[in-house]
Design brief:
Oligomer: single chain
Shape: globular
Helix content: 25-40%
Structural class: alpha/beta
Radius of gyration: 28 Å
Number of helices: 9
Largest sheet: 7 strands, mixed
Number of strands: 7
């Protein structure tokens, strides 16, 4: 492999890439196992089987480039090719959308997130994982990109990734009426390239989760699409019966009505 790692897929074959992929796979397996519905979509990164523990009857893998498609036993679902800002699904038709590094590699991440909001039904969920710029990995990559301007150094993370921090992503989600349901950070081992040194610092995962969680190399966000102002409509006959029971009943008199006597 060359010193200049540009693509996202080649990077995931490196020791830090495999380490991150394993952590993200565990996060997805736990997050989607108990999510119910009918339609789930993973956008990009077929190396990660984000829907493998989910039991929705209809699941799709949407590739945005000429990405390798996993085997038939990975998703047991068709793979589609489409633009992330123009998904081939009707508005409000999906229950779950997974974005594993899809926003970071998108030409227009705002348009991608707006498209996800369009295709999700109310109370549908979007799950996003990305690289944290406020981490040892992010710091090393920023220094590498600065050095590359002078022809020095090499990338540590994929060169095509555009960092989107968690707080920035949270603001984008709020603008689109998403509510962050949960967030977790992971991968606190140092920015090294050797599998041996990554294994020697495995204890940092336990320490980082306890003492400095926001400095993990990656984040994992679960958000829910909220539609405010909605109310449950009851059948018309129920409303009529309630009004009829609440209205005062008039009683008919059998005898002649005598006017009240005047006191003057």
């Amino acid at each position: 492999m060359s010193d200049e790692i540009i693509g996202l897929h080649p990077w995931f074959s490196t020791p830090p890439g495999r380490y991150l992929l394993q952590w993200e796979q565990e996060c997805f397996d736990q997050a989607v196992a108990n999510l119910f519905g009918y339609h789930g979509v993973q956008l990009g990164l077929p190396l990660l089987e984000g829907l493998r523990t989910n039991r929705m009857p209809h699941r799709w893998l949407v590739g945005t480039r000429s990405e390798p498609v996993p085997g038939e036993d990975a998703f047991a679902a068709p793979a589609l090719v489409a633009q992330s800002s123009a998904l081939p699904f009707a508005a409000g038709s999906l229950d779950l959308v997974l974005l594993p590094h899809a926003l970071e590699t998108s030409i227009d991440p705002h348009a991608t997130l707006r498209e996800v909001e369009r295709v999700l039904m109310p109370e549908g969920r979007v799950i996003i994982c990305g690289l944290n710029p406020v981490s040892f990995w992010g710091l090393k990559e920023r220094r590498a990109r600065l050095a590359r301007r002078f022809g020095l150094g090499r990338h540590y993370l994929p060169g095509e990734v555009d960092f989107i921090g968690y707080w920035r992503l949270r603001d984008w989600l709020r603008l689109l009426s998403f509510e962050v349901e949960s967030v977790q950070f992971g991968c606190w081992r140092p920015a090294v390239r050797s599998q041996r040194w990554l294994d020697r610092h495995a204890w940092l995962d336990r320490a980082g989760d306890r003492w400095w969680p926001i400095f993990g190399a990656a984040y994992f966000v679960v958000a829910v699409k909220r539609v405010y102002g909605m109310r449950l409509l009851e059948p018309a006959w129920k409303r009529v019966s309630v009004r009829a029971a609440a209205s005062p009943a008039s009683v008919a008199s059998r005898g002649p009505v005598t006017p009240p006597s005047s006191r003057f």
